[in-house]
Amino acid sequence: xxxxxxxxxxxxxxxxxxxxxxxxxxxxxxxxxxxxxxxxxxxxxxxxxxxxxxxxxxxxxxxxxxxxxxxxxxxxxxxxxxxxxxxxxxxxxxxxxxxxxxxxxxxxxxxxxxxxxxxxxxxxxxxxxxxxxxxxxxxxxxxxxxxxxxxxxxxxxxxxxxxxxxxxxxxxxxxxxxxxxxxxx
Length: 185
Known about the structure:
By secondary structure, the protein is mainly alpha-helical. The protein has helices at residues 14-38, 55-61, 64-68, 77-92, 96-110, 112-119, 130-141, 146-165, 167-172.
């Protein structure tokens, strides 16, 4: 059988496979070292006053909150912080594996090539105005890559759940809240 170039495929031995694996491991290790030295590696410590979200996560999420919660609240600094603190509190009760996956996604979105793959935009969310960010999120929702759409849901769902668990969030849906008096049977 011929490959695309019309040449017979080279026979790959186990030794070649191992050699390729070692070279690949060296490249990944070099990239990780370069990221650490250049400061691109993620900081594992949570931001001050938070349990799970880190400073870089907050910088990435803060501009997204008004776009993802459009119509649910007035986009004031206090409401944005309340939504992020609620998301952090919700994440604090999540499984460690889910938190690690979300951190990996947020770390990936810090890098322009990965942000371009997931969202279709090279620009950091903080450097976009509301109209541009709304367009970015709209394109992100319509991407052909299922992984891309899943990444948006991984960010937006905990944020939405956290917001609607607050009293103000519940009121924004028209739900008056839990009953004030419960009659014992």
